[in-house]
Every structure is written in C-alpha cells, then in structure tokens.
Design goal:
There is one protein chain. This protein is an all-alpha fold. It has three domains: 8-58, Arc Repressor Mutant, subunit A (Orthogonal Bundle), CATH 1.10.10; 63-103, Arc Repressor Mutant, subunit A (Orthogonal Bundle), CATH 1.10.10; 108-152, Arc Repressor Mutant, subunit A. The protein is 69% helix and 0% strand. It is built from ten helices and no strands. Helix 6 (81-90) packs antiparallel against helix 7 and helix 9 crosses helix 10. The longest helix has 14 residues, at 13-26.
C-alpha cells in the first residue's frame, strides 16, 4: 500500500532527512540521484529539496567525493574514462567535478593495457581483424582512441 502523499510525515523535512541519512549511511550519492530516490519514496519535493540543500551545506552530501569514489570503483572494474564520464553526466554531476575526478583517476593508458591483456592474454595480435576486435572491446569499455592505441599498439592509419 502506497503512503498517502498528503500525509504530514511525507511533507516533513525531518522524515526526509532521516531517510536520506539512512541512504547515505550505505554509500555516497549524487544530489540529483538522492533527490529522486527520496521523491520515489513519497516525500514531498519541497521537503526533499530542503534536506538535500542542508546535507550539501553540512558536507554529508559531497558530489566531488561521490565523483572520485565513482571513478575509483568503475576504473577498478576495468571501465575507461569516456564511459565513466558519461555515467557521471547522466547522474547530474557538474562537468568540472567530472573532469577533476577523471584527471585524479588512474593512468588510463596502462589500465587499458591491463584490461586488454586480461581479456585477450599477452599474445600480440598478428592480424588486423584481431587488432580491430581488441580495439572495439576497449572502445566499448570506455577508453579513448589514444588509450586504445597505447594499449594495443594498433594505429589504423599506419596498419
């Protein structure tokens, strides 16, 4: 049974704050994502906006920290900066925070090499179709053309 949206508990910022703190106890969130989750739980939009603003002001909700943690986690899973940046934009993180988090991330070219080697082994590709297959894989993972060239040693212009 869905709660009554006119319920005073759902319009109360205190209840929304408690729910937000419970969510933040588990992991970091982007402000827009936290706001959507609270509204999906039935809290009134004005109460949610107030709570999110208070949490940002107090430092409990920090989008720069969220972006850095997101980059670290997803880079550890073998995803590249292009894909991670697109995900962060989708979550509503501002561009300058995304750029800073990506710049503070790992050495993307060496990560691309490790990801490629983990998937295909240490054997150097001998044919162009095999090089193209590796390049497509790294592109899907979200690596830029420079990172792909560094990881595969393949340059479509000269090969």
């Amino acid at each position: 049974m869905k709660p009554d949206p006119e319920s005073s508990a759902l319009r109360d910022p205190y209840g929304a704050r408690l729910a937000a703190l419970r969510l933040l106890a588990g992991r970091d969130f982007a402000a827009a994502d936290l706001q959507l989750r609270l509204e999906a739980r039935g809290f009134a939009a004005p109460a949610v906006r107030t709570v999110v603003e208070e949490l940002v002001a107090s430092g409990a909700l920090n989008e720069a920290r969220f972006a850095e943690n997101y980059v670290t986690w997803h880079a550890g899973r073998g995803q590249g900066p292009v894909r991670i940046a697109a995900d962060l934009r989708r979550l509503g993180i501002p561009g300058p925070l995304i750029e800073a988090a990506i710049a503070a991330g790992p050495d993307w070219a060496s990560l691309a090499g490790r990801v490629c080697q983990g998937k295909f082994g240490a054997r150097v590709p001998e044919s162009w179709p095999e090089k193209a297959r590796r390049m497509r894989f790294l592109q899907y993972r979200g690596f830029s053309a420079d990172h792909i060239r560094a990881a595969t040693g393949a340059d479509p212009d000269t090969d």
